[in-house]
Amino acid sequence: MVPVKAAREGSRAAVLKAFDEHHLPLFRFAYRLTGSSADAEDIVQECFLALLRPGCPFDAGRTPLRTYLFGAVRNQWLKRLRRNGTAIPDIPDRADERSPERLILHAEIAGAVAEAIAQLPELQRETLILAHYEQLPLAEIAEITGADLGAVKSRLQRARASLKQMLSAYAPSAEKRQ
Amino acid sequence: MNDNELDEILNKWESPVPSDGLRTRILAPREADQRSSKTGSLGFRLRWPVFAAAGLAAFLLIAAHAVPQTRSFFAGERAPYQVDSEFLRYTDQGSPTVELYTTSYNADGSERQLSKMIPDNVPGTVATHVLETGQEILIGWFHAEHAARMRQLARVDVGCQQPRCFTAVRYLGNAAELLSNGCVAGVVTGHETILDYPTVAVRRAAGEQHRMTLWMAPGLGCFALRIVTEEKQPDGSFRKVEEKRALRVTVNR
User: What is the tens place of the pLDDT at every residue in A10-62?
Assistant: First the structure.
C-alpha cells in the first residue's frame, strides 16, 4: 500500500512510489479516452497534483488508491468532454510508405481501432478500455464508473458487439475470404 | 468475428509512453518546496559561489536604486499573483526536455520574471539571472530612451536561448493596446481554460520558418499560460519545437 499521507507530507520517496506504481496504466487509460498524449499527460498530472493537495477526499480505508485514481482520471476526462465536446482523436500515424506491407497494415488497423472506440458512447468506451486494455475486474470498473455490476456487463457486451461490426473488415476470417 | 479475433484486433492499438517531463512536472513543485527548506541554512557545498553572487547582486541592487525606471519595483510593487512555468524543447522525434522553470507575472501587459531555475544547474541559474539583471540596468543607464520604448511593449518570456539558457523574449506589440483589445496578439484560433483561467489562443508568425501560438489570459493581464512554437517542415506541416506550460497560478493576497 502506498503511504498517501506520507506523500502529502512531502516525502519524495512516497510521491515517487505512488507515481511509479500507477502513472502508466492511468496514462494509457487517459490516452485511450482522449486520443491525445498531451491531454492524457495533463489529466494524469492533474490527478496526482490533486491527490497531494490538502483536503483531497481520498480515504484509503474505503477505496484502494488505484481505483480512486482511475476514477479521478475518468472525472477529469468527463469534465473536459463537457467543456470542449468530443475531440477528434490523434489517429496513430501510418507507417512509412516504404515499410513492409505488414507494418502499414498494422498501423491501419490501429487507426481503425482508435476511430471505432472513439465512436462508442462514452459509458461503453470507458468500460471497454478498463476491461480490455487495463484488465480490471468488472467489480472494480463498477466502482470506478459509479455503476452497478449488471450495467457494466451490459455496456461491455454492447461495446464489443459494436466493435465487431465496425472492425469486421479486419477480421482474420474476412482476410482469408478476400 | 469471434471474441478472440476482436481481442487480437483491439490489441493492435498500442498506447505511447508518457514523456519524461510528466514525472518532473508532478515532482517539481514538491522538490522546489523541499529545496527551499533545505537551503534555509547555507551548510551547502556551493557556499563560495553563492557568496560571490550575493556580493555582485548586492552591487547591482544598489546600482539599480539609482535608476529611476527600476525604483518603482523596489519601492514595493507587489506581484498580485505569480505563475510557475516550465519551458520544454522537443527533439526531432518529439520527446521533450525541460530546459527552464520560471516564476513570473504580468504588470501593464508585460511579463516580469521573479525567478528562474535551470534544472540541475545552480551556477548557470545564478550566472544568467545576474547577467540578465545587469544587462537591464546597463540599458537603463546608457540607452534610457530605448529602455522607455521597450517598457511600452508587451514582453513575453518564450524559453531558453542556448547554450547558456538566457531567457528568450518576444515582444507582442504595444502593451496598452493588447490589454484593451482582450489580449488578441495575432489570429484567434480558439479559446481554452487553463488552470481555471479562460484564455484566448492566438497564432502569429515567429520568423519565416516558425509560428507561435499563445494562450493569453485576460484575467491575468494577458499573461501567456501556454506557448507553443512550431517549425515548418519541408512538406509544409509544422512540428512542435518548444513549449511553455504554466504549472501553477498563486494569487497573492
Answer: 555 666 788 889 999 999 999 999 988 889 999 999 998 887 777 777 787 88
Q: B14 contacts in A (CB within 8 Å)?
A: 110
SS3 state at A167: coil
Distance CA B13, CA A149 (A): 27
Residue A95 to residue B35: CA distance in whole angstroms: 45
Query: What residue type is assigned to position A163 of the chain?
Result: L
Q: Quick one: how far is CA A35 from the chain centroid?
A: 10
Distance of alpha carbon A68 from alpha carbon B236, whole angstroms: 44
d(CA B18, CA B1): 33
Question: Which grid coordinates are listed for A60?
Answer: 484509503
Show the DSSP H helices in A55-132 as ranges.
65-84, 101-119, 122-128
For chain B, which residues lie within 8 Å of any Cβ of chain A, measuring from their own Cβ? 1, 3, 5-10, 12-19, 21-23, 25-27, 29-31, 33-34, 192-193
Q: What's the whole-model pTM score?
A: 0.48
pLDDT in tens, B168-218: 888 888 888 888 888 988 888 999 999 999 999 999 888 778 899 999 999
Helices (H) and strands (E) in chain B, counts: 7, 10
Give Rg (Cα) of chain A.
Answer: 18
Q: Using the 8-state DSSP alphabet, how is residue A2 labeled?
A: -
- Cα gap B140→B147, rounded to integer Å: 6
Q: What is the ipTM of this complex?
A: 0.84
Q: How far apart are CA B196 and CA A70, in angstroms?
A: 22
Q: Is A41 on the interface with B (CB under 8 A)?
A: yes
Of B107, B209, B213, give the one whose Cα is nearest residue B170: B213
Cβ of B210: how many Cβ atoms within 10 Å? Answer: 15
